[in-house]
Amino acid sequence: MPKRIVIIGGMAGGANAAARARRVDEHAEIVVYERSGYISLANCGLPYYLGGEITNRNELLVQSPRSFKKRYNVDVHVNHEVIHVDPARKTLQIRDVSTNQLKADRYDTLILAPGAAPIRSNLPGIDLPNIFTFRFLEETDMMFKRVSSGEVKTAVIVGAGYIGLEVAEQLHRRGVNVHIIELLDQVLPNLDREMAWPVAHQLIQHGIQLRVRASAEGFIGGDKVEKVRLGDGTEVPADMVILSMGIKPELDLARQMGVKIGSAGGIVVDDRMATSIPDVFAVGDAVEMPRPLTKQAERIPLAGPANKQGRVAGHFAADCNAPNLMRFQGAIGSSIVRVFDVVAGKVGLSEKEAQKLGLAYQAIYSVRTDIAGYYPGANPLTTKMLFDPDTGKVLGAQIIGKGGVAKRIDVLATLMHFGGTIDDLAQLDLCYAPPFNSAKDPVNIVAFIAQNVRSGLSRVIGPAELDRDYSQFRLIDLRSPGELEAKGKFLSGVNIPVDELRSRLNELDKGQPTVVSCQVGLRGLIGERILAGNAFADVRNLTGGFHIWNWYNQAKKLAGDNAVDVPGK
Ligand code: FAD
After folding, report:
1. Which of 250, 267, 311, 337 to mutate to test the pocket of ligand 1 (most atoms within 8 A of CB)?
2. Which end of the chain is more exposed for a tag (fewer CB within 10 A), N or C?
C-alpha cells in the first residue's frame, strides 16, 4: 500500500514538504489542503507587487495546483480548510471554503504547516471596510485595486515592523500619503534602538508621518474607514488602514489534536520536525524550537526556516529512517529589510535580547565603507556586534548601510552557525577588488576591534554608558575643528585633534577618568593608546565615535526621551 502523506497548508513550509516527500517516495499519495485560493505564493513579494516594483502578478505564484500535480504528482486542494483531525484514527475532516461542503480523508503521516495569522485586535471599528492585514494575495489584490482607483490618498500603517515599513515605502511609491503608528519607542523593534534610527530617519526624510509611542485605539468611519483614533485622543485621516502589529501562530487544529504547545507559544517539534503525536510533523511559523545560540525555545517566523523545515519534515514523513544529516539544527535568526535607501540586517541577538536573557556580552560598533572607500559609489556600513567576553563567541550583529549589508550578515550567519569566535572572524579570507570590498572586509575590521577589546589593548565605552555617566568623564574629541563644525559636537569636552595629542599631554590631568572619541572610533583607539602609553589611569574609547553617539541621541529624541541635543545634526 502506498503511504498517504497529508499536508495542511500549502505555502513555504507545506509546499516544500510536499515536493521533498515526492522526491523521497515516488509512490506515496501526497495531498495538500490549503485554505486560501493559492499555493506556493511568494508572500514576501506582496508589498513589492502592491507598490509596482513587481509588475507581473503571476510571478508571485511560484506553483499552481496544476503545475504541482504535473511535476510532483501531488493533489493540491486550494480553498479547502481542514477543520478537524483525529490523530487516534488518523482521519481528517475538510471543508470546501467555496461550497461549505464537508469531506473526509485519512493519512499515514501528517504535516501541519498552518503558518501564523496577522494580529487583528478587537478595537472599536476594526471591521470597517478598507482595514487590511497583509498575508494573502486576495487581500493584496483588494488593496491594489483601491490604491489604483485613486481613492486612497492617505493610508495609516499600524506597526513599524519590517512588513509595515516595506508596505509604507511601497504605498509612498504609489503617491499615497503614509502615516505610521508604532506603540514602541522605535521602528523595527527587533533592532537596538540606536541602530533603528537611520531607518526612522529615512521614513521621515521621505515625508512619512511617523509616530512612535503611539497607539491606535479605534477606527472611525461610515461606508469605510475614515480616521484612526490614537491613544492621546488625536485622529489621523485614513482612506485605508493596514494592520501590521505582529503575528500569532495558527494553533486551533494543533490544540484540538492535543499536540504539545511550548513556552514560546508554538508547536513543539524535534529536529526531525516531529510533534508530540506519532506520525504528525509540523513546520514554519507555527512551530518553536530551541535556538542554537541560546538553547531557549523560540519562534523564528521567517521564510528561510519555514522552507528548510518543510524539506526536513517532508523527508521524514516519507521515510522515517532518513539519515541524520537531514535533521533541522535550528535557526540562528537572520533577517534583512530595505527601507528606501537604507538596508538593515540582523543576525543572532541584539543587545536588548542579550540583556533580557541575562547573557554576558560586549557590544562594539564599527563604521567602514561597503566597498573600497576610494572607489566611486562607496557608502558607509555601520556594524554593531555582540560577543561573549569569556569565549569570544560571536552572539549577534546588526548592520545598517546602503549596499553590501546582506553579504556581511550572511558571512556572520555562516560564522555563527559554526559557533565561530571573533578570532575566527578576524581570520576569514574574503574576496577583494576595489569595486567589491576593501582588503580588510568590514566584518574583519569589527573582529579586529573586538580582539583589541577582549585582549585588553583597548577599553571601550558605549553610548548608553557614556550618556548615563557623562559628568564623570573628561571627554576629548580627537576630530579636527572642521569636522566638529560639519558633523556636530558633543555637549562638552575638549577638542584636541589626534595628531596634536602627544604635544598637548601637559594640558591634561592623568588621574581624571577620560573618554576619547573621534568620528567613528579609529582615531579614538590611537588617542587611547597614546594616553595609556603616557600613564593616564582610566581611558576609554567611545565605540562607534560621534557617529553612533549621534544615532543614539537622535533615537532618544524620536522616542521623546530626555535626549542630549546634538547641535545641527
Ligand atoms: P504561511 O506562509 O503562513 O502558510 C500557511 C498556510 O496554511 C496559509 O496559506 C493558510 O491559509 C494555510 N492554512 C492554515 N490553516 C489551515 C487549515 N486548517 N487548512 C488548510 N490550510 C490552512 N520572511 C522572510 O524571511 N523574509 C521576508 O522578506 C518576508 N517577507 C514577508 C512579507 C509578508 C507580506 C509576509 C506576510 C510574510 C513575510 N515573511 C518574510 C514571512 C514568511 O512569509 C513566513 O515566515 C513564511 O511564509 C511561513 O511559512 P509557513 O508555511 O509556515 O506559513
Report:
1. 250
2. N
